[in-house]
Write a structure and sequence with these properties.
The structure holds two protein chains of two kinds. Chain A is about 25% helix and about 15% strand. In chain A, the strands form four sheets. A six-stranded antiparallel β-sheet of chain A has the order 4-11-12-13-10-16, covered by helices on one side. Chain A has a five-stranded parallel β-sheet with strand order 5-2-1-9-17. Chain B has a four-stranded antiparallel β-sheet with strand order 1-4-3-2, covered by helices on one side. In chain B, helix 3 packs across helix 4 and helix 4 packs across helix 7. Helices cover about 40% and strands about 10% of the residues of chain B. The longest helix of chain B is centred in the middle third of the chain and has 17 residues. By secondary structure, chain B is α+β, with helices and mostly antiparallel strands. The chains are: A alpha/beta, B alpha+beta. The interface between A and B is large, with 43 and 33 residues. The structure holds flavin-adenine dinucleotide and iron/sulfur cluster. Iron/sulfur cluster (SF4) binds next to loops of chain A.
Amino acid sequence: MVAKFDQTDSSVVVIIGTGAGGGVLANELAQKGVKVVALEAGGRYLPEDYVNDEWESFGQLAWLDPRTTSGDWRVARDFSGLPAWIVKAVGGTTTHWAGASLRFQDHEWKALTTYGRVDGASLLDWPIDGAEMAPWYDRAESKLGVTRTGDRPGLPGNNNYKVLEKGALALGYKEVHTGRMAINALEYDNRMACQQTGFCFQGCKWGAKWSAAYTEIPAGEATGNLEVRERCHAARIEHDDSGKVTAVVYFDAEGKEQRQAARIVCVAGNSIESPRLLLNSASPMFPDGLANSSGQVGRNYMRHVTGSVYAVFDKPVRMWRGTTMAGIIQDEARNDPARGFVGGYELETLSLGLPFMAAFLDPGGWGREFTTALDSYQNMAGMWIVGEDMPQETNRVSLNSEVKDQFGLPAPNVNFSDHPNDIAMRNHAYKQGMAIYNAVGATRTLPTPPYPSTHNLGTNRMSENPREGVVNRWGQTHDIPNLFISDGSQFTTGAAENPTLTIVALAIRQADHIAREMSANTL
Amino acid sequence: MTLQNARSGLTRRQLLARSVAAGAALVVGPGFIAGNDAAWALETTALKPETMATLVQMARDIYPHDHVPTEFYVVAVKGYDTPEAAPGIEAGIAALDAAAQGKGFSSYVGAGWERDRVDLLRAMEDSAFFQKIRGGLVTGLYNQKAVWPLFGYEGESFSQGGYIERGFDDINWL
Ligand SMILES: Cc1cc2nc3c(=O)[nH]c(=O)nc-3n(C[C@H](O)[C@H](O)[C@H](O)COP(=O)(O)OP(=O)(O)OC[C@H]3O[C@@H](n4cnc5c(N)ncnc54)[C@H](O)[C@@H]3O)c2cc1C
Ligand code: SF4
């Protein structure tokens, strides 16, 4: 039943990347009868292939092509070749993701209006709002089986959650629960309930966590309208004299250059690869890269204000047991400038295994200050901070002409520096996080710096005004009508919430739009 | 490069007899070093045994865990005992010994207190050699499955059905 399309078939929609954005879009279009070729740089890994081992899994799934970093973020120093932790595989980073699935708060769609101008930030309102997105969020939540939405119950709390909850309640926080998670508390959609294995980041071997790899992709393939070409790396997008895109040139598994014709191209390679592909597609007609008349391609890179707080107790917690991120405190997600910053943040449970803890607790750290913390590994609890960061034009993905990837294509450089608002927010969150654990008797707290970016956003942002962004309200590029952006790089602003539910909701909505326009022959 | 149980080869007394001024690891013969508790021994092929002994001590000083036996540190650094890696390691350790001698110690391992050795390491913290050894240890030491139980970490859990019936929520002191 799996479709096979001719490379010269110019009636197909070509989607680049099969993660949260591309994977969902591919299935949604295929369900509507649209013919889709999805190019995916990575291979296909399914639950039986995933490994409960942090480094081995990282080696299996992570995107490790050359990348460079600059800017004053600590990642540029400690992990200079690894700005982001993203997956290269069919299903994209939804294999690694933890499943936290939150809607934006209404005011977050209108960041500029709500927060006002912020020095040094390129804030903008989204051209869409919460009311318009509500039905798409409903569909995304039922697709992902998000707990505590619809009639789905929450997950049970694990040890790490219980510590967080007790501390949070002691501080007077009210919105404390086991999260809205794309992880089955009960069997759902023919996938079993969570077995509390604790390796959500390494790919769920039970299939209890939603991942495009074993939901969207096979469902799309079963329609006969979707062909996924794995281990195929898109190198550039071609266009005709009228400025419409016509084909995607890619390297296949053998490294041979191939070309797939296209009626429409949708780019969903995550927020580093998507702008890189547009920039690498520069032509005499579009010398600054495709869809870049605004100069905004690659700019406004956002990664959320992140950081972790780990705490050591005098008795065991064993935080690694059970769901990695099923625990949240939402009280600080509101916008309350009286705290010294605009926007808000969520606090979510987080656990790393010993190998990753050693690498990420204090990168570069050594000596007894470091090792005595690890000595108490069993007695640790942990939480992650995820808050809204300020978009800045100078935080950007650009091409590094000196470093090439395995295909000879210029590698992306990721330049990032915190905005003062980001720093104020992180410090506030560290203080609250430490207070939460101190309230339950922590003997030591460890405000841990941000990891390589797991949330990558904003580099092809959505704007009403074509001069201020790359895509319109449908994710369609302002410059080229048959070129769409379908991943997190569309984000105008990042909001305080983990982004994937919104990426999925936008992809479902975009599929609806594309199918409608195709049948009306306006695309 | 074989990690052996020294008890089969040399007696504990023989080993101790040679343990003069040694730290966590001691040289017990040409191309052969052992722990001073005789729990492990390692034959070197490319590195001088003294160099390997110093490297093991350096590894322990970088990531000191008093409850982790030295054999795990040996495993973490024994990959440097190759013809390709050896020259860089010999040079780095020679510089470390020279720095120690500059401070009046006989050698790096001759500095008896961890504090003194750590001072020597701090002074060379930004060097490529130190960073290579430290960086390598992050995975070399902590990614050994056999070391995990010493920290209480339970590792893989899928084959045992996860923790749903094995204590994911068993905390009892809150
Ligand atoms: C450890 C971890 C935990 C996370 N937890 C959460 C969470 O709890 N909640 C949440 O909301 N988000 C979470 N995230 C983030 C989430 O995974 C991402 O936001 C989401 O997957 C991004 O979707 P995307 O479509 O933009 O990109 P991806 O899902 O990364 O998909 C991009 C795909 O494009 C492919 N690709 C890229 N370039 C090319 C090319 N040139 N040619 C062909 N293919 C290409 C890649 O191989 C990849 O498969 C987590 C991420 C990580 C790493
Ligand atoms: S804890 Fe649950 S969701 Fe996470 S990997 Fe295990 S079974 Fe899957």
